[in-house]
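QA checklist item 7 of 12: single-chain prediction sanity check.
[x] sequence parsed
[x] length recorded as 266
[x] structure emitted
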Amino acid sequence: MADIKMVAVDIDGTFIRRDYSFDVDRFRRILAHMHEIGAEFVVSSGNQYWQLRDYFPGYDEELSFVAENGAYVKDHADVVFVGEIDHQTVLDTIAWIDARPEIENVMSCESCAYAERGHMRDWFFEFMKTYYHRLEWTDSLRTVEDRVLKFALSVPQERTYEYYDEIRATLDGLVPTTSGHGAIDLITPGCHKASGLARLAKRWGIDPADCAAFGDGGNDIEMLRWCGHGYAMANADDDVKAAANAICPSNEEQGVLTTLEELFGL
């Protein structure tokens, strides 16, 4: 049985099934055991905090969160880091997006996320509410008064890595990350899931060697490498599997829960 003091899990494609469900009773038993031994459970995702916490209604403050790919970090009830993008970079990024009308964009901020009227289709706005439980229309992203954490771009799927490379070459001040399939997030340099986990581990006095992480996408690679025990899901991309120490069953098979039961001897 490994001496695990912190567990970090991605959500989509990792912790939850395709239908957005997971075995809640089984997880609560694992979480209770973790509380007993003083281990921490961290939800580590590119998604909005307000969406992530809704997976754990009534007990979200028993957990910690690294949301928005490391730009928003919460230690139980306490917000410990907000990776705000500076105003000029926000304006430059909006101008870059506006010049490419085939891109649809959500600007994710601390209190809410925003989409600009005329730059996103109504049906896609409703679809994005699956991932952004606080999402509002605005007439102009330039006038939003909120701390900007991330831009979430939806590009033509077949051109995902073309846009990824273009952003790296032409957009200063932000770093692209992608899990493929037409989704590209733009975040502050130095902000990623591993940086968020490092902030929490420092607060808690936990060594990376005593941490376990689970993921399936490209934005999980840093945390899989940072943690002493990195698990790629069976459904993960090949480069993610290459970054991990081990492979665990797929999200549809509840591989995270199965592996945690093995790690904790349950």
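[x] summary fact logged: The domain at 6-82+191-263 is CATH 3.40.50.1000 (Rossmann fold).
[ ] second reviewer sign-off
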